[in-house]
Amino acid sequence: MSNQYYLMSQLPGFSVGEDKAIPITYERYYDLCSRFLNKNEMKILDGLSLEPPLEDSKTGSSFVDEWNYKEKSLRLALASIRALRMKKKFSTGNESIAPDAVQAARTASGMDSPLSAELYLNQYRLSVIESMRPTDGFSLDSVFSYGLKLRLAERMKKFDEAKGMASYKKIYTRILEDK
Fold first, then answer.
1. Which pTM does this prediction carry?
2. Count H helices, E strands: the chain?
């Protein structure tokens, strides 16, 4: 526990979505973590991602497992809605999908702009991270929560409306050609 206290006290605070620069990179965060976390904790950190694995596997952290479930639910809900719109079959198999993820996917899919939808989904993701954040700000789960929030903030900083629209049109055209 004392290791997480020293680690968390060195990490700068930031807000996701602000126009200001993020005060730390994920690489710097990872480097700091490697100094304070043990091998098993670093293994969990190595698997920390905004794109969880398709197969269900326990990470050793209930926080990370819950994040993976929520994000996987969102991705399955989005895929299901897209398939329905394209009149294609899609099965989630035996996967359960979180109801709030279904609602977020429905809301995003109803938006006019892909950028607006993506910004909305990122706000949903942030709210998921915030709702799961432990009350103990120096716990191992707080370290993981910070890492996810940092990954999300870095991802959001990469958004470029013009490039995104060009990419969207290219992908959409390719999908229509495959019909």
1. 0.84
2. 8, 0
